[in-house]
Amino acid sequence: MKKRSKIALFLLLSICIPKSISQEAFYNNGNIQIHDQGQVGFHIDVINDGIFDQNEGLALFYNQNRALNISGTNRPVFYDMEINVPNDLNLDVAVGVRNFQEFIAGRVITPRDRRTVSLDYIDDAPYLGENDDRYVDGYSSATGLLDFTFPIGDDFRLRPMRIENGAGVNTARGAYFFENPNSPNFFSGSFNTDNFSNLLFGVSTFEFWDLDGDIETRVTLTWDDNSNIPTLVDELEDLRVVGWDESLNQWINLGSTAFTGDLDNGEITSRPFIPDDYIVITFGTSELILDGDLEIFTAVSPNGDDLNDTFIIQGIAQFPNNELSIFNRWGVEIYNKKGYDNSWGGLSEGRTTIAKGEELPVGTYYYVLKIEGQKDRAGYLYINR
Asked: Facing residues of 261 across strands?
């Protein structure tokens, strides 16, 4: 590792101005820079009204006795940044990191009612040291090409959220809220957990995330024992990511393509969606559809684990005079069978551009079930692999 020389920056190109009798601030209204191999320690507040975004060295924020604040009219951008402030580092202006950031002690707190004031990870900058006492309490953003996990949390709980490669090309921004979606503190209106699409059976009332971005991505959410997942599902196979659609004024099923863990701790990955299409996201449940004497399981995961490998309609054997049709999102029929017997495993029947017998892609499909002498049944199903 290269050695860096320490620089007493508060003596160069800037002045200290009193904020109170006992508290001073480092103030910049000019054009300053931390050069390569330089190290600068800030143990007082920083006010940046000038140019402070061409840094190449290390900026250390440290104070064992009180909180520190970064404010001003312009965003400072650091190359490397260390945060060692047990009483927290408060941001009143966005702060960027271009190379590496380390949490040593304390949280980074941003104003949740001003989402553009965030800790910004630029050009795939990584971080280290996050835990339940060290994270971004508010908004952070990511700009780059790689997978990114937001180091976000609330109520002294780290609750990461992950996006996929490319989702941060135009900058993605996220925050976690440990509060009831029915009565959010930082959003106009509410997200009624009793309003959901016919593919859902319940929505979490304990927490939600805000994710902003215009690139389609799968999103991975995490839970712990405070998430109360057992109030939603008995089996993780029934858990879903859900999003609030403002135009429909309801929660929409965003699916489940993978999950790990147990009911007290784990993570779940959604199907691909565009984050900006949904105001907030959280957990929901989509167990099965009870329809008279039938139980229709709406998830198909043909991966050979003997769990939902085929589209199951429990009780269909009682109605041999049935016909099942399945359509893709464009309304093209991709499967049809008279006398359906729970045998369809997500393969094309050759009526689309996908050859007969080929696996259909992960996504949402539509089924129509006709039973002689009864009203047709219809709904959505999901293929996960």
From this structure: 266
